[in-house]
């Protein structure tokens, strides 16, 4: 499947109305066949929609298309970029952890560190994204992840993701990338440094 057509070759199952474009499912919740069906859905014994905050066919189609375009394993869509960043930290970090973060990130991302992570005992160090030799000294025993933004907002720093990936593997930490400005048409592993 070519990149140009990936997004249109994946779509929610067509309904009995034979629509061409996928309808938007503007519903908060979904109906159940009966109480037993509802129980099985809530117990994850069968697949299906329960409530749009969990899953919704319109959102799932978007997620599936994004994963395909990015060559990713899967995708989770959030309502805003900050929600995605916060959800990533909330799922990967625990009290007492430490993170290293590029000092060239979107303004609101700094606020998560200072206003939220700090009060939960999660510490951070900022690194110069263009001076990778200085990163290692910031990695401690409790460091859990490296967070970078590429291209960065607003200076448009380009960071070598292959280098970051190798650095994180060697240190046994996660790599988290805010790739907000890039199009999936360009490879996510854009190599900037030789
Ligand atoms: C690089 C980057 N990350 C995150 C965000 C936050 O996105 P949102 O405003 O959707 O929360 C922005 C917003 O401009 C951004 O430029």
Give an account of the 3D structure.
- This protein has 6 helices and 4 strands.
- With 194 residues, it is α/β, with parallel strands linked by helices.
- The chain has 2 domains: 3-70, no CATH class; 81-178, Type I PLP-dependent aspartate aminotransferase-like (Major domain) (Aspartate Aminotransferase, domain 2, 3-Layer(aba) Sandwich).
- The longest helix is centred in the first third of the chain and has 14 residues, at 57-70.
- The radius of gyration is 20 Å and the shape is globular.
- It starts with a helix and ends in a 16-residue tail after the last strand.
- The model has no long low-confidence stretch (mean pLDDT 92).
- Pyridoxal-5'-phosphate (PLP) is lined by residues 80-82, 106, 108, 149, 153, 178, 180.
What keyword list fits this structure?
binds pyridoxal-5'-phosphate, 194 residues, globular, Aspartate Aminotransferase, domain 2, 11% strand, single chain, alpha/beta
Shape type: globular
**Helix proportion of residues, in percent?**
25-40%
CATH topology of the largest domain: Aspartate Aminotransferase, domain 2
Distance between the termini: 31 Å
User: Mind telling me which CATH architecture of the largest domain this is?
Assistant: 3-Layer(aba) Sandwich
Briefly note the structural class of the backbone: alpha/beta
Give the helices and strands as they follow along the chain: HHHHEHEEHE
Domain tally: 2
User: How many helical stretches?
Assistant: 6
Low-confidence stretches: none
Strand portion, in percent? Answer: 5-15%
**CATH level-four homologous superfamily name of the largest domain:** Type I PLP-dependent aspartate aminotransferase-like (Major domain)
Which kinds of small molecule does this entry bind, naming each only once?
A: pyridoxal-5'-phosphate
Radius of gyration: 20 Å
Q: What is the strand arrangement across the widest sheet?
A: 2-1-3-4
Count of distinct strands: 4
Average predicted confidence as pLDDT: 92
CATH class of the largest domain: Alpha Beta
The major sheet is characterized as: 4 strands, parallel
């Amino acid at each position: 499947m070519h990149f140009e057509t990936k997004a249109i070759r994946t779509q929610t199952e067509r309904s009995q109305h034979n629509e061409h474009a996928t309808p938007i499912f503007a519903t908060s919740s979904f109906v159940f066949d009966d109480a037993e069906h509802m129980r099985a859905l809530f117990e994850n014994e069968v697949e299906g929609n329960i409530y749009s905050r969990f899953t919704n066919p319109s959102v799932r189609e978007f997620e599936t298309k994004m994963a395909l375009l990015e060559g990713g394993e899967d995708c989770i869509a959030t309502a805003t970029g900050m929600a995605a960043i916060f959800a990533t930290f909330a799922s990967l970090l625990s009290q007492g952890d430490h993170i290293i973060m590029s000092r060239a990130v979107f303004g609101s991302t700094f606020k998560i560190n200072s206003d939220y992570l700090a009060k939960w005992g999660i510490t951070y160090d900022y690194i110069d994204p263009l001076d990778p030799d200085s990163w290692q000294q910031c990695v401690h025993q409790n460091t859990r992840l490296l967070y970078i933004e590429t291209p960065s907002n607003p200076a448009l720093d380009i960071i070598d993701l292959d280098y970051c990936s190798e650095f994180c593997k060697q240190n046994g930490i996660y790599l988290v990338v805010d790739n907000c400005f890039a199009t999936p048409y360009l490879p996510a592993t854009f190599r900037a440094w030789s």
